[in-house]
TrEMBL record:
Keyword match Transferase: yes
Keywords: Glycoprotein, Golgi apparatus, Membrane, Transferase, Transmembrane, Transmembrane helix
Originating organism: Aphanothece hegewaldii CCALA 016
PANTHER family: CARBOHYDRATE SULFOTRANSFERASE
Membrane topology: Single-pass type II membrane protein
Protein name: Sulfotransferase family protein
Recorded GO MF terms: sulfotransferase activity
Compartment(s) of residence: Golgi apparatus membrane
UniProt GO BP: carbohydrate biosynthetic process
Length: 211
């Protein structure tokens, strides 16, 4: 998450949707009073501190951010986020668990790394749950942010964000990119349908398909 008072924007960071690259690109442009939660060592430390004190953190939901920051800031700042094709998202998340050194949830990591393959992951209770929309909506499913870009068109959509808030064109660094085959090769008919059902709202709202 980023709160920029200098450029009057709020970035809601949905995990595995290009947020680390976006954050790295924006940091050099930020003002002294701007807040970065997550991504950098300092940001990760601050994220854990703020999680305990006010509920804000790296992957905070928009509804919580709105409540904590208040109506004046929320209504006057440009809010944006990014999402990703759910079938691709799960493959990326699976590979992240296989390679991560993050140890805040050792049990989940150990369980996933002990699985035979991706299919077992999708069928397990450890598979990523729920739509990305849950990060961006209130309890009545109203979208709270002003713009939702896509990981698939990251550079184009990020350029729009920069122009919207008065930033120069910024090159995006490539960060946390998992190396694997195209996501479609990981699925069979059963797992493809499971993801379609589980992420139905994302698929419909953002017009995603399996291709």
């Amino acid at each position: 998450m980023i709160i920029s008072h200098k450029y009057k924007f709020i970035f809601i960071h949905v995990n595995k949707c290009g947020g680390s690259s976006i954050t790295d690109a924006l940091i050099p442009q930020l003002g002294e009073k701007d807040i970065v939660l997550g991504v950098t060592p300092e940001g990760e430390k601050l994220s854990e501190q703020w999680r305990k004190t006010n509920g804000l953190h790296k992957h905070v939901k928009a509804a919580i951010a709105k409540e904590v920051l208040g109506e004046e800031i929320w209504n006057n700042y440009f809010k944006f986020s990014f999402v990703r094709n759910p079938w691709d998202l799960l493959v990326s998340t699976y590979h992240w668990w296989l390679s991560t050194k993050w140890d805040d949830d050792k049990q989940t990591g150990q369980q996933i790394r002990s699985m035979k393959n991706f299919e077992e992951y999708v069928l397990s209770p450890y598979c990523r749950k729920g739509n990305s929309l849950k990060f961006l909506c209130d309890e009545n499913e109203n979208i709270l942010v002003d713009f939702i870009g896509k990981q698939e068109t990251l550079e184009r959509d990020f350029a729009y964000v920069c122009g919207r808030v008065g930033l120069p064109n910024i090159d995006l660094p490539r960060k946390n990119i998992s190396k694997h085959e195209h996501y479609t090769s990981y699925y069979n008919d059963e797992t493809k349908l499971i993801v379609k059902r589980k992420f139905n709202k994302d698929i419909k709202t953002f017009n995603y398909s399996f291709k």
